[in-house]
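Entry type: protein chain
Record version: 2
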Amino acid sequence: MKSIEECARKDIVFLALYPHVIMRTLQQIKDVVIEQTILISLTAKITIEQISSVVKCQQIVRILSTAISFINQGYNPVTFKQTMSGFQKWSVLEMLNFLGHAFETSEEKLEGYAVISSMLPTYFWFQWHEVEMIGTQFGLSLSECRESVYETMYGAPNAMYRSGMEPKDLMDLIPSKPLSENEEQIKAIYKEKLNETYHKIKPSK
């Protein structure tokens, strides 16, 4: 197994670490990484400025990717150290596009994207799975439930964002809404938990 220092000697170094350990790790590798190293952090909360205060490399990148990047369909916001050239940015984006759609954004927006994009699947995956399990109680096989949920959910975002309809009008297309009595409660949970998460991962000033 390679040591942290050995891994840090590469031309491109990914920092896939929790915020509470990244600064300590940077201290371990600060004498190993060079100015030409491309250092890519996947960590929320820790800014490029904080990383630059420890290491001397000039190509520092932050990306907060989503789990669906592992099937190369991610939607991944990327921010760069200001001193990086347009060509350097283009090269990094070309590499990261293998994970899905990588796009440049300002650093102050990165944690916002983390909450509404990077973490987004976690808000729904367990619900889809639960609907599948309930569907098996209605005489459908698990494979039929999965196909039904997948095909419906695949088209639902297109209806929401590409039909040209206002959200309220779209949501009224289906008159039967079994969860309507719980909508305000669910929305309140989203507001509370997502705001809490955002302020937890937002960089300290």
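Comment: Residues 118-201 form a domain with the ProC C-terminal domain-like fold fold (CATH 1.10.3730).
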